[in-house]
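Database export, one record per block. Field names are fixed; values are copied verbatim from the stored entry.
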Amino acid sequence: MYLTRTLVTQACDEWGLAGHDYVGRTIMSELATNAVVHAVEGHEIQAWVTRLAGAIEFRVWDPSHAPPVVPKADFDAEDGRGLMMVRSLASGGCGYRHLDGGLGKVVWARLAL
């Protein structure tokens, strides 16, 4: 996940938004980790950071058609909190969409500026 966090840091620095770097890296790291853990084995993922009017958008593509699942809170669980964390940090919303032609899905989250 080092590369996705670096991507966020570089984008935030370039846009003069270094104050959003930590939260942005956290969001992107969780999206990318979820894609790697739950995507089709042996396939790559792709990640983007985009500046929108009033937000930074983080997107991760993976070839899986399975929708992202936010599990019910289980305080004893060792994992499964990543998307819950993304939901709470994504002040500009979050979601996913399947790509036309069955080419997987993109999961996204926005950090409002």
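Remark 1: The beta strands are 46-52, 55-62, 94-98, 105-112.
Remark 2: The longest helix spans residues 21-38.
End of record.
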